Amino acid sequence: MNQLVKAFTKSILEGDVHSLLELHSTSIHSKIDNFTFYEKIIKPSMYRIGDLWEKNQITVADEHLATATLKYLLATVFTHQEAFENHPKALLFCIEGEHHSLGLELANEVFKEKQWNTRYLGSNVPVKDALAFISAWEPHAVGISIGMTTELTRLKECIGEIRSHHKEVEILVGGRLISNYSLDFLEKSKVSSFHDLLELDEYLTDMSEVLVSLKG
User: Fold this and answer.
1) Which of 6, 27, 30, 80 is most buried (CB neighbours < 10 A)?
2) Nearest to residue 102, comparing CAs of 80, 78, 81?
3) What architecture is the 2-77 domain classified under in CATH?
4) 209 CB-near residues (< 8 Å, 6+ apart)
């Protein structure tokens, strides 16, 4: 698997979409499903590219090319055509100040594989805009991604605002920061946190069953 991650990372940095599609196709033929591909190959590759950028081993242009290439791959390979209008709804966004959204895009795919109806707002979303969308669309769950400790104050603000206006909505938080730190205030605010896509997948399976039973 490590060799596949290295090859995948190299192809992303080169903007080689053809090689990425071949790697994905080979993985599927080897019985690696899309979910495992997200968690074991795409995610480590993203983290590796982030580390290279932080250490100035690649340029901003390299990082932008990698991001654009991976977004193209996601749109090409993992786009779901079916709409789940009568299914549970989830609103997903990155906290204001957070500009790295690829992890959340992968989470969005997990929601859709579980047949959730999602709205993906992307990166750097102000709290007031998120609140307006929640009020208008009334999702069952709100998923927030955060990667940097510098945005913790904004995360607390955002959760507080959502809780004060929408007490019943499920709030889910993930991202690189959650993977590396334990944030006690999340539990006090009745917020579920996820270290990886596997935890999210398990949670959504359980939550979907609860929502279906409530409908019945």
Assistant:
1) 27
2) 78
3) Orthogonal Bundle (1.10)
4) none
Angle between helices 60-77 and 102-113 (to 10 degrees): 10
User: Fold for domain 89-215?
Assistant: Rossmann fold (3.40.50)
Task: Kindly report, residue by residue over 151-194, the tens digit of the pLDDT.
Answer: 899 999 999 999 999 999 999 999 888 877 778 888 778 899 99
Question: What is the reported pTM?
Answer: 0.71
Both structure tokens of 182: 């334990």
**213: Cβ contacts below 8 Å, ≥ 6 apart:** none
Distance CA 21, CA 202 (A): 28
> Which residues, in sequence order, are CB contacts of 162 under 8 Å at separation 6+?
130, 131, 134, 142, 169, 171
Cα separation of 190 and 192, whole Å? Answer: 7
| Type and span of the H or E element at 167 | none
Reduced to 3 states (helix: H, G, I; strand: E, B; else coil), residue 177 is helix
Say if CB 76 and CB 23 are below 8 A apart.
Answer: no
Residues of the chain with CATH 3.40.50.280: 89-215
Residues pairing with 119 in the sheet = 91
- Per the rule left: phi > 0, alpha: psi between -120 and 50, beta: everything else, 25 is alpha
Burial class, 84, CB count within 10 angstroms (exposed 0-12 / middle 13-18 / buried 19+): middle
Neighbours of 109 (CB within 10 A): 22
The string of pLDDT tens digits covering residues 69-106 is 887 777 777 655 455 667 889 999 999 988 888 889 88
Distance CA(70)–CA(91), nearest Å, equals 22
